[in-house]
Amino acid sequence: MNSFTKAYIPYGGYYSTPFCRWQGAMQNENSIELGAKTARRWFLEKKKIDPTIIDYMYFGITVHQLHLFHAHNWAAAMLVDNQKGLPGLFIHQACTTSTTILNLAALAIEQGAFEVGFGLMTDRCSNGCHTVWPNPTGPGGEVISENWMMDNINSDPNVYPPLKMVQTAENVARETGITKEEVDAVVLCRYEQYLMALANDRAFQKRYMFPVEVKMGKKQTKLVEQDEGVTPTTAEGLAKLKPVEPGGVHSFAAQTFPADGNCGFIVTTKDRAKELSADPSIEIQILSYGYSRAKPGYMAAAPVPAAEMALANAGLKINEMKAIKSHNPFATNDINFARKLGIDVMKMNNYGSSLIYGHPQAPTAGRIIAEMLEETVDSGGGYCLWTGCAAGDTGASIIFKVS
After folding, report:
1. Using alpha carbons only, what angle is made at residue 390 by residues 27 and 196, rounded to the nearest 5 degrees?
2. Using one digit for the tens of pLDDT, what is the confidence trace for 296-341?
3. How many CA atoms does the CB half-sphere of 356 hold within 13 Å?
4. Are the C-beta atoms of residues 383 and 316 closer than 8 Å to each other?
5. Cβ atoms within 10 A of the Cβ of 198, count?
């Protein structure tokens, strides 16, 4: 079942930290611990709610951290300060981890498995771990080594010959006939859309963004309140940048960058959502979910069939969406999506997207969804759709109704 009637998110029942470009302010934090402690602060300081109201937690993480084996239950214990035996479930679906967690929580609410669920998504791309694997039958028994971040970004074992992720986007660009000029125009538009969220002393961002507290030493901490690592962008600057791949269309500016951050979502029943809402007159319902897998080496194409499934499951059409947002690690993702679904590529992703503020993996979609919900509230309510790709040429999509 991928359509829902009973699953709701309280208005304001979500947060995202700022995102920091890797090797920034969050580079030395264990993301499991940082995510749990940030979520607890958000519940107590921002929401004024005891986190022990949570019946079940979904924990999303994709980049290996110390104590990963215990990550979900350790984070759950930190979140409720060991006051309640809160169970957790570990979820990893690369870039669509947040969306998968919302889908699983909605399924549980639909079936009456619990009343209040919480999705906590966190990752630190900085200082990615380096692993070695036994290889006793190899030449001399030498071990196999793996750089957790770079090796996996640069090679999908399901694709031969191996491709970097940017090369999968170039495959879609060639197949769709996308030019560098189109790509650059979208990048500039996305940057200008991000600037919308910074207007009036970041009034839009402050509606969903929650500062993260990071350690500066044994006794010192600081609050990170804004994104770190966003690059100022101009049309002239984009035109001067050459494609990363020979014959390609994506410069470094036309692709996202690894980042650090975390986010959280409450998923519950209609009645409890009203009780927990920052504004009980606003109702957010999870309507449907879609998923996909594109042909090997064409990851940027996956958001299209995922969105088509979510729309079909909801019984809706793309032109009924008040807001459309995407995880767009490459500008081609959005151009291909807009062409295939017949929409204006410049009118999606208002207020920001991962192309501009970075990609910490598990929390990326969650932050984008929080922005989308706030945009839909500003539009007077209606339907909104998020879609995105994930490692392994997969995709996911989710639709909400804001009343």
Report:
1. 65
2. 999 999 999 999 999 999 999 999 999 999 999 999 999 999 999 9
3. 26
4. yes
5. 16
| CA angle centred on 347, ends 344 and 348, rounded to 5° | 100
Residue written as tokens 């004024």? 48
Residue from 376, 400, 360, 365 nearest 20 by CA? 360
Locate the domains of the chain by residue range. Answer: 165-205+282-402
| CA separation for the pair 260, 163 (Å, rounded) | 24
Residues 6+ apart with CB under 8 A from 203: none
Class of domain 165-205+282-402: alpha beta
Nearest Cα residue to 98 out of 122, 127, 67: 122
The answer on pLDDT for 56 being more than 80 is: yes
Instruction: Measure the CA–CA gap between 134 and 19, rounded to whole angstroms.
Output: 35
H or E segment and range at residue 293 = strand 283-293
Copy the structure tokens of residue 163.
Answer: 């491709």
**CA distance readout (Å), 382 to 3, 4, 169, 269, 350:** 17, 16, 32, 19, 16
Nearest 5°: the CA angle 97, 229, 195 is: 90
342 to 62, 182, 304, 329, 334: CA distances (angstroms): 33, 16, 11, 21, 12
Q: From 195, 149, 208, select the one nearest 372 (Cα to Cα).
A: 208
47 in helix, strand or coil?
Answer: helix
**CA–CA distance, 99 with 93 (Å, rounded to integer):** 9
Residues 48/288, Cβ–Cβ less than 8 Å = no
Query: Residue 28: which pLDDT band, with cuts at 50, 70 and 90?
Result: very high
- Retrieve residue 240's tokens: 């001067």
**pTM reported for the whole predicted model:** 0.97
Phi-psi region of 50 (alpha: psi -120 to 50; beta: other; left: phi over 0): beta
Q: What is the DSSP letter of 18?
A: P
